[in-house]
Amino acid sequence: MGSKGNRSTFADILEDVAGEGRRRVAAKVPSWADVSGLSFPTRLCTEQCSSEATARYKAGLAARLCGGRPFAIADLTGGLGVDSWAFSAVAGRVLHNEMSAELSSAVRSNFSLLGVSNVAFSSLEITPGNISEVLSPFLSGWNDRIIFIDPARRSATGSKVFRLEDCAPNVLGLLPSAFELAEHVVLKLSPMADIELLVRELDGVCGWRCREVHVAASSGECKEILVVMDKSGDNGYSVTCVEEDFTMTYSPAEEKEATVSLAPVDELSGKYLFEPGKSLTKAGAFKLICTRFGLMKFGVSTHLYLAGEPVPGIPGKWFLIDRALPFDKASIKELGREFPRCEVTSRNLPVTSDELRRRLGAKSGGSTHLFALHADRGAKNLLLVTTPYFRA
Asked: What is the pTM of this model?
């Protein structure tokens, strides 16, 4: 009963959990992988920690905000400390605050093993009433100061929350006091948040403005939305899409004023369909990528694009179009017989991808991807037979 092979003892279970945490952190933060003795006290702290790539991006952003000058940064919701670790490489001084005393102690020990020496630690619940008392001694003496807040986005029952006032800590409640202590406030918010609504809610709190919004994606998933707030005036905000090695910055006005070239629906064979990456779609850069990258859009509300050749560098997926058929019962029946295994995507049609797959009778797999879409030119609904294109 107590053999390790049966994993029946409490110690064995703990060891399995710890091993899983180490594997998860090694995948997310490769620089920590070969450091022995690191402690990860809970499953949640390893699940919710930043990746090394996104943490280093935030550190670079903080350094740029301060123009390369020495600065202090307070991470009010430090968690496992990956962001604070990255900040320590560019900041003169870092505060890692984590409400869990157990996790705070583990991070302190981990940073010693990682050779980090410019980080102070606290384990307090930050509230509007005590933020000044906690941060003033830490930030005093520094001309450039940043407060970083990554609020927990789960309720007491564990369900996900999206409104700022439902997060812990309450970002809206903290901002007035935070603005009195630092030149910049950087918020890491839910990748599910509506960016326009978010900016409207945050803008103008105590006269401060959203200056920048950064949408970070990797591995086909939107990971983070970062909002930079400061006293830079009422000149609007910029949006930066970040995905793998790609970065694109623009203003919402540019997206609004961009023109769209509608894709012709005749002679599609041999051309390429483009499905944008998650950073572009989350940011809503639907028209601007037409003008910046010479793409044509199938429809104003159909966020799929056409090009004669794949455009290098832009994040997303490319598909070589084999042929186009009308979207009707006969075509669905024909393609269902021809492709018993295929991937299926439906866009801007009154049928979901799953429903179309059922109508085709197809299972996932194979080397073919079928796209059902509405094309504005000619007001046509099409079925496109495509093959994923992979660059050599």
From this structure: 0.90
CA 282 – CA 253 distance, rounded (Å): 17
Distance in angstroms (rounded) separating the CA atoms of residues 358 and 356: 5
DSSP class of residue 166 equals G
Q: How many CA atoms lie within 13 A of 107 on its CB side?
A: 29
Q: pLDDT category, 373, cuts 50, 70, 90?
A: very high
In the predicted model, what is the mean pLDDT of the chain? 90
Closest CA to 384 of 341, 324, 308: 324
Q: What is the pLDDT of residue 354?
A: 97
> How many alpha carbons lie under 13 Å from residue 80 in its C-beta half-sphere?
24
CA nearest to 183, candidates 241, 143, 149, 224: 143
Who contacts 89 (Cβ-Cβ below 8 Å, separation ≥6)?
59
Bridge partners of 385, per DSSP, are 323, 370
- Whether the CB-CB separation of 264 and 380 falls below 8 Å is answered with no
* Dihedral pair phi/psi, residue 113, rounded to 5°: -70, -30
- pLDDT at residue 185 in the model: 95
